[in-house]
Amino acid sequence: MSPFHKTRRGQIVLGDSLEYLAGLKAECVDLVITSPPFGLVRKKDYGNVESHEYVDWFKPFGHEFKRVLKSSGSLVIDIGGAWIPGQPTRSLYHFELAIMLCREVGFYLAQEFFWWNPSKLPSPAEWVTVRRIRVKDAVNVVWWFSPTPWPRASNKRVLVPYSDAMKGLLKNGYRAKLRPSGHDISEKFSRDNGAAIPPNLIAIPNTESNSYYLRYCEKHELKPHPARFPAALPEFFVRMLTDEGDVVIDPFGGSCVTGEVCERLRRKWTCIEMCEDYLKGALGRFERPPEPQQECLFDPNGEGTAYRLYHPAARWSVHEDPLDEDGGKERTINARRRT
Ligand SMILES: C[S@@+](CC[C@H](N)C(=O)[O-])C[C@H]1O[C@@H](n2cnc3c(N)ncnc32)[C@H](O)[C@@H]1O
Fold this sequence. Notes:
Layout (H helix, E strand, L loop, with lengths): L2 E4 L3 E5 L2 H6 L6 E6 L16 H18 E11 L13 H13 L2 E9 L8 H6 L8 E8 L17 H9 L4 E2 L5 E2 L15 E3 L8 H8 L12 H10 L5 E4 L6 H9 L2 E6 L2 H7 L48 H5 L4
Parallel strand pairs: 2-11, 3-4, 3-10, 5-9, 10-11
Antiparallel strand pairs: 1-2, 4-6, 5-6, 7-8
Helix pairs in contact: 2-3, 7-8
Bound molecules: S-adenosylmethionine (SAM).
């Protein structure tokens, strides 16, 4: 397949990624990172597979990912959950995907991450805002798989600032003791390492509204890709799991966010996308030279760099109306209660 576009470090390929991957030699890729079409009920423009067919659809991709990855490499998949049509229960498809990739294809689950989008609107409205029987679905699973139990990785690449509580401990000292859980909180915890190890919950709002990419699409009358992930998501894994010059592939490239990130971080990259219209917009990402790499995009102590996750007890409802015996099946009973 000839490239649709080439840059200094990477290329965009127009076509079916399964076909593209089949043409690669074995063990030549360091990281496959992607957000595939989700198994959604409400279809996106680019056509999703329904959740009950999803695992079968994905399996050949899984085998190709395993074949082309080096034994030290990683596969990272950002995938959202889905609701069962017409009822307030969830599909299991993304868990079935993980089980298939491990049990049938032979990947290891290195770690599961959760991408929390703090700006996600409450949906599906019927269950969340009308009947009030479910909470906001604002988290995607990000599966990190590896062909062996020992993929190359370093959490030192993705550190975060210390919390105020930790800064207090570092300043005022800490009494080493055994926690009730049995964990030995030794003196080592009071050593200032300059930054903290992040958890596997990654908070990134998906609120892009005035980026160069969007302005480029507008200028050229192109429809922006409807399901883009924020650049900080692939950036986290590209930094943690690869070195400069390593090879990264995004087989469901969309608007080539992964390519833009890799160009900036000096990784070699290929994004494969089968819809040409999305690639016309993606060209805008490579029109200018990449931004220089920065250690930190924001003032780490500044406003808006941290999201507050409330303790659940921050505001329990004091008015406990009895729960509906029918679990909210009858819409009218619940819809009357607005608080
Ligand atoms: C969720 S989107 C990816 C969005 C991308 N991460 C971004 O931020 O722009 C999934 C994309 O996979 C593409 N796609 C689906 N099947 C494909 C295939 N077999 N080969 C290449 N692209 C495919 C779809 O056209 C869609 O654009």
